Amino acid sequence: MLKLRSFRIRIALVSAILAGSALVGFGVISWWLIYNAKVSRLDGALKIQLMRTARPRGENQNRWEFYETRLPRGLQIQAQTPIGILVIDKNGNTIYQSQSWATDLKVNNLWSSRAQGSYPLPPNDEGRLSETEQEPSAGQGFEPERLPNIPPPNIRLATKRASGDTWRVGAINSPRHRVAIAVSLQAIDQEMVGIGSIFLISLPIVLILIAGGAWWLSGTALSPIERLTTAIRQVTVKGLEQRVEIGATDIEFVELIQVFNQMLERLERNFKQASRFSGDAAHELKTPLTILQGELERAMQQAESGSEVQQSLGSLLDEVHRLSAIVRKLLLLSLADAGQMSLHLIEVNLSHLLIEMTEDIEMLAPELDVQTDIAPKLLVKGDRDLLVQVLQNLISNAIKYNLPNGWIKIQAYRQGTNVSVTITNCSKDIPVNERDRIFDRFHRVAPTSTHKIEGTGLGLSLAREIARSHGGDLKLGQTIPGQTAFTLTLRST
């Protein structure tokens, strides 16, 4: 099962599902209650009309025809709604059946075996209407008269299907006759279909609004997390001093932000201690190394030329030079880490520097084929000595890690507002797991042969820090079989 990784999407979906379930349940219950209310109102009107038919009046057909015309008003329904009346005497003979009565509508089961609580016959009941119960003339009202305080007749109501329609049928059993009134529920069904359609149309809109509101609300609630994420992305050697402001953050996230700020504070303190230690150590080592170098040089001058003592002193002096170079690089790296590397900025012509270094390559490694493509007047603003150190490091690595009778290609060109210098050499392929660590301090690529390659593992790391202090960068090029490329990018003037 696919698990959604986005918390905001899950919140929006869960909110929409819960709200949708509640709305659907509310809609179904509301629809059912509205339908029952309409049917109940119709049942009440049916009972009133059936009770009127139970009163002893004349049984002539005109009376029932007139009564049928007045039924829509009495039932408070539309005139075009189909209504059927069936009147049967106590012997089972049909007294009156309206034209709209469905022939397959069976109502015999609704009439009880005997009339319960039926009206007593008045003294003037001789098969005619009394003066107070004459049919009103056209245009007169047809209001029900006040009924005597006696038990109501037995009325039964039911819903039946007949002639492809649904009918609400009410039946009453009186001493003289049995009457059934059937009202089509088509109008009510159409109204309920309209209500259902409105609900179905509004439901998706409401769900979209709820999902959008949940998305916005969750985004607002998670804004402190986004601020933490932004702050974490900016946590670098030079960004440890920043802190995330609490402000009006919800109380649930206050502790998280406080813990994060405390972590940054500990990291900043520990990093400054480590950086200060390496800088102080490198600074303190400079003096004894300088003294040791001077003493070794003087001892070499006093030793017999070509003697074993002089050779031993020469080896020691080489190691002191190497140690001094490491100390200088460590001091520069500690300054770069602390953001205190001082730069003597001047306008530097990289084209001239690269041409001079190309001549040095031809003297240092005459067996290598040197190819150049250097654009003229590539001017940058930077510290000339440090930039020379970066270029010398790249060219030195290109010579040391080259293949016998290999080649070196130096390309320099302007790219927009930047100057790019790419130094490529023929070499063994760098393993994939080594490429990510090539700029790590004291890390050196494992040699692919028994030939020992001198180095400290600090050159590339220092070169990249110098490039970044100038607002540029140093990157290892794309993996191409049989060659290695480094690209130095600086801002042009």
TrEMBL record:
<dbReference type="GO" id="GO:0000155">
    <property type="term" value="F:phosphorelay sensor kinase activity"/>
</dbReference>
<dbReference type="Pfam" id="PF00672">
    <property type="entry name" value="HAMP"/>
</dbReference>
<dbReference type="InterPro" id="IPR036097">
    <property type="entry name" value="HisK_dim/P_sf"/>
</dbReference>
<keyword id="KW-0418">Kinase</keyword>
<dbReference type="InterPro" id="IPR005467">
    <property type="entry name" value="His_kinase_dom"/>
</dbReference>
<keyword id="KW-0812">Transmembrane</keyword>
<keyword id="KW-0597">Phosphoprotein</keyword>
<feature type="region of interest" description="Disordered">
    <location>
        <begin position="117"/>
        <end position="154"/>
    </location>
</feature>
<feature type="domain" description="Histidine kinase">
    <location>
        <begin position="280"/>
        <end position="493"/>
    </location>
</feature>
<keyword id="KW-1133">Transmembrane helix</keyword>
<feature type="domain" description="HAMP">
    <location>
        <begin position="219"/>
        <end position="272"/>
    </location>
</feature>
<dbReference type="Pfam" id="PF00512">
    <property type="entry name" value="HisKA"/>
</dbReference>
<dbReference type="InterPro" id="IPR003594">
    <property type="entry name" value="HATPase_dom"/>
</dbReference>
<protein>
    <recommendedName>
        <fullName>histidine kinase</fullName>
        <ecNumber>2.7.13.3</ecNumber>
    </recommendedName>
</protein>
<keyword id="KW-0902">Two-component regulatory system</keyword>
<keyword id="KW-0808">Transferase</keyword>
<dbReference type="InterPro" id="IPR004358">
    <property type="entry name" value="Sig_transdc_His_kin-like_C"/>
</dbReference>
<dbReference type="InterPro" id="IPR050428">
    <property type="entry name" value="TCS_sensor_his_kinase"/>
</dbReference>
<keyword id="KW-0472">Membrane</keyword>
<dbReference type="InterPro" id="IPR003661">
    <property type="entry name" value="HisK_dim/P_dom"/>
</dbReference>
<dbReference type="InterPro" id="IPR003660">
    <property type="entry name" value="HAMP_dom"/>
</dbReference>
<feature type="transmembrane region" description="Helical">
    <location>
        <begin position="12"/>
        <end position="34"/>
    </location>
</feature>
<dbReference type="Pfam" id="PF02518">
    <property type="entry name" value="HATPase_c"/>
</dbReference>
<dbReference type="GO" id="GO:0005886">
    <property type="term" value="C:plasma membrane"/>
</dbReference>
<dbReference type="InterPro" id="IPR036890">
    <property type="entry name" value="HATPase_C_sf"/>
</dbReference>
<feature type="transmembrane region" description="Helical">
    <location>
        <begin position="192"/>
        <end position="217"/>
    </location>
</feature>
